[in-house]
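Step 1: inspect the first sequence and its tokens.
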Amino acid sequence: MRLLVFLAIVVLGGAGGDIAISHAMKQIGEVEILRPSTIMQAILRAFRIGWLWIGLALMTVAFFSLLALLSWADVSVVVPATALTYVAAALGGKFLLHEDVAPVRWAGVVLVCLGVALLSL
């Protein structure tokens, strides 16, 4: 049971962190001119957006949960199971960020799920 709880924290925390940081970076917009001053301005704008900090916190929790998982479970179980982060991120991108997810990406999500299921046997 402990393994499943920490695995859920890793998967949902990692995907949630990616989604939150993506949301923050879309608020900033594209850096068109790659000069040190414009890059620094974009970084400073990013640090003022709450979603960036939420994303970093979620990713930190996911990372330390992964470390805990690896301390008591086999890496051959933990690492393939964390691939479910890709599934959660695709779902979050579609339903939370309203991104268009191409059919070929959904096929990839299905393949990841099948791979995780195969490895768990």
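Step 2: inspect the second sequence and its tokens, then contrast the two.
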Amino acid sequence: MKRGFFWSLMLACGAALMDLDLSLSAQPKPSQSDMSIDAKAKAEAIASLARGLKDEYVFPDIGDKVAKMLEERSVRGEYDSVTNAKGFSDVLTKQMQEIAKDKHLRFLYNAQVLPAVLPSAKPGEGPPPDARQLLRLRRNNYEFEKVEHLSGNIGYLKLNAFVEAERGGGVAAGAMAFLANTDALIIDLRQNGGGEPSMLALLGSYFFSGSVHLNDLAYRISGTRDYHVTQTWTQPYVPGQRYLDKEVFILTSARTFSAAQEFTYDLQALRRATVVGETTAGGANPGGPYRVTDHFYAAMPRGHSINPVTKTNWEGKGIEPDVKVPEQDALKTAQRLALEHLVKKTADEQSLAALKRALANLGPSPSPLPKREGEN
């Protein structure tokens, strides 16, 4: 399973799904063999997908609208010329996203026959990973790729997914203990595709004192137009010391997705972090798979994030960095910003000289990204 599968979906339906990726951010594997599909198979898929959109999609009105669009196109024979499974999945995904403006919503083909029942999996409610998946998590160090002490007493943490705190919490605590004595911190989420809210809450808790409301997640109750709302708050206790009253920088790219975006958005909205890099991918609607037919499933968003500060989220537009630079320049830019901040607040001559040397060693400032049309 790919990085970020915990929040998008953590699926473990036995050996049959061992090598399937049924997350919301999943894409068909290039190595998969394609399959021919006839008119009956396409009609069955459209009917099943339409039911799922009407009963499960996070926004009922939009789900109804997308379902109606697919049904009408099918009746008009617009899919008659599509004879292969991969092409069919690509066409439907494009059409659904044009209406819903939801990057999590996808229609996906899988060469293997899907299990008869797929768990719909709210965040944290999927079955636990099996032994093989646990081994992968351990070998990937629970997605904590690098913790480093940079020149000028700046900390650096590279995190590639938010693994549930029950399993990755010890590594998170160790990383934060290593970084505790730094004067500024850079958190690299440029390759982070998402993950589990419990790790988001744990890691976020290190940067605040007291109880802080981070996010709400409204999840649609299946078959209704009602929602169940879950709140995420900082935790009253974290292992080790909190990282307070110091500058925090978060690095982003177009691949920063799902829960990684929530972490970024929450800290940016609370003015606890400066975001450096590229606009993120968009995608604030978590969910799980909806079985359509034996070889097709929908990545079905069932919930949406509501930030308590902005009262909205980053769906469809992504998160705009505070300092916008190409992703390859984001780390050096954040280092420069951190060092410049420390220079301004440092009175000790020896420390000041060391900071200035670290600044000089970074070389010239990278060029910022050009503004898009309509940006201020």
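Step 3: confirm your contrast with the notes below.
The longest strand covers residues 213-220. The CA atoms of residues 249 and 337 lie 9 Å apart.
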